[in-house]
Amino acid sequence: MIAANLPALQVVLPLAGAPICAILGRRWYGWLIATALCWATFAISVLLYVQVAENGPISYMLGNWMAPWGIEYRLDRIGALVLIIVSGIAAVSAPFAFHSVHAEIPEDQHRYFYTAFLLAMTGLLGMAITGDVFNLFVFLEISSLSSYALISLGRDRKALFASFQYLILGTIGATFIVIGIGLIYMMTGTLNMADLAVRLPAVAGNRVVDAGFVFILVGVAIKLAVFPLHLWLPNAYAYAPSVVSAFLAATATKVAAYMMFRFVFTVFGVEFSFDQMQLSWLLVPLALIAAVTGSLVAIFQDDLKRLLAYSSVAQIGYIVLGIGLATQDSVTAAVVHLFNHALMKGALFMALGAVMLRVGSVDINAIRGLGARMPLTMAAIVIGGLSLIGVPATVGFITKWYLVIAALETGWWEIAVIVLFSSLLAIIYVWRIVEAAYFSEPSETGATVTEAPWPMVASTWVLAAACLYFGLDTRLPVGAATEAARALLGGTP
Amino acid sequence: MTDLLVLRVVVKLLIPFILLFGLYVQMHGDYGPGGGFQAGVIFGSGFILYGMVFGLETMERVAPMRLIGVMIGLGVLIYAGTGYVTMALGGLFLEYGLLDHHDPSHGQHYGIFSVEAGVGITVASVMILIFHTFASRKG
């Protein structure tokens, strides 16, 4: 009974947990409820992944209404991988949240914080599991609205502005997506992804379908923060509470990237997206500009959270580049980078959360000399930073390896050069952090700080260690990504 | 609280009908236009009107904000709970047909009724809370 309903439980467990958290979550109960649910959700997503790996895609009919008419939950390799990323990062963030939330958010708002956290997770998980495009939009709204609330809880008053900016741009993005969905619904009369994939080729020459494709693509690009549409991202990540930065940076853009995979490869299909709409000529240049300018701007940031946010813009560029090249290796790189980037950005933002707790600031001057005072936290930042650069034996290397191979295979060696150049820029901004942490005299406040509480260090190190482990033992992420890429390019969902 | 006697009397007369109409839209959702969302808005607007005319403190005596906060969560729980019950009965999430042993179409009825009740409770409470949040801002 429970095994058959795992796909529904994956989403409705945190959904039901959210109101319980709002009603009963006084003092630390909210944290307890949220933590328990995050781990339960993680367990479910691991079980689902094993099922998908053994028996192929899972299909689940909500309310037992048959597929093209009712809402279908459909889980394949890439969906299962994204579920693991979202629930895994949530499960690791939960122990971290206890001290961090206590320090950064007024106590009477804790229960609402955890409620919004669970709702954001519900939305992100739902987007990854659903096989229905309108249901996807609904879950997108659930996750977006709760993340606006989460970001606005930041200590700095600028958090309100950042949240509002994200709200405006995010709403425009979501509106574009729903307009696009409306247009393709008008042409095909169906909202089921698999059904759309069957029916769309018959009407592919139609301008309405083209317009629908463009609307959806632009909307998803806003949520994904693809280069010229990334303006909401640095403020949102910089002013959000530390846990929220870590959770959203590691998951929200990954799920947005997953949306792009779904629409480009599954719903519209490779032939339509890349032959008819010539998507490569749009995505590849934008991705390359993102990779270079994101890294360049990151070099000049003094606020470290903002620095990492611009580095995210560059890293998202790699994912989009992988989608844009649309070969087996490049799509593998893009899928595996969803996983890898979640690990490294999660670790880095959590380490900065620990700094925030102890020093009260994440300015580059605030971390001077902390290498000796907070050795574990700073070591985690170094590992995450090496991973951002793409040093061998870290996960970042795996992505770059596949991306460069893919670029050389397609004969565009210039792309490989630009990717490597962007990595060189990453060395500069990572080195700035390392220099401040290890080779500078501590500031007055920095001289007395101690290592962060152990749950925070443990959470950070789980992700940092994963950065190293999956950089050496690549079977799980690369195996999953290769399968996922084959399924995506093969056209069958 | 407003000093206009006519307004106070008329509003007092109107509110029962507004609430009744809200309940009508809620119950009639199975057969005609309506359902939890619309009913919740109508029902909530009755409270909002009361708050506008008789003051926030008076409204809070009828609808304490702590209770409203609980009701918001309760509605979602009723919705999700219906799904959990159908799963416990051995079906899929929100498979209403299982809610009645004899006739699945009756089960559909019960399921939709309870889900819509959850929606109505949450929407009405959220409307009241939004009004209260804006109206109670100082400065």
End-to-end Cα distance of chain B, whole Å, is 18 Å
Helix share bin of chain A: over 70%
Overall geometry of chain A? globular
Number of alpha- plus pi-helical segments of chain A: 20
Trace the largest sheet of chain A across and list its strands: 1-2
Percent range of helical residues of chain B: over 70%
Structural domains of chain B: how many: 1
Mean pLDDT of chain A: 88
Low-confidence stretches of chain A: none
Structure write-up:
The complex is a heterodimer of chains A (493) and B (139). Chain A has a domain at 280-493. Helices cover 77% and strands 2% of the residues of chain A. Chain A has helices at 6-24, 29-55, 77-104, 110-129, 133-152, 158-188, 193-199, 207-224, 232-239, 242-267, 269-276, 279-299, 304-325, 328-359, 370-373, 375-389, 395-409, 413-438, 454-472, 475-490, and strands at 58-61, 72-75. A two-stranded antiparallel sheet of chain A has the order 1-2. The two termini of chain A are 26 Å apart. In chain A, 62% of the residues are buried. With 139 residues, chain B is mostly helical. Chain B has one domain. In chain B, helix 1 packs antiparallel against helix 2 (36-54) and helix 2 crosses helix 3 (56-62). The two termini of chain B are 18 Å apart. In chain B, 35% of the residues are buried. The model of chain B has no long low-confidence stretch (mean pLDDT 88). Chains A and B meet through helix 1 of A and helix 4 of B.
Short note summarizing the structure:
By secondary structure, chain A is mainly α. Chain A has 20 helices and 2 strands. Chain B has helices spanning 5-28, 36-54, 56-62, 65-88, 104-135.
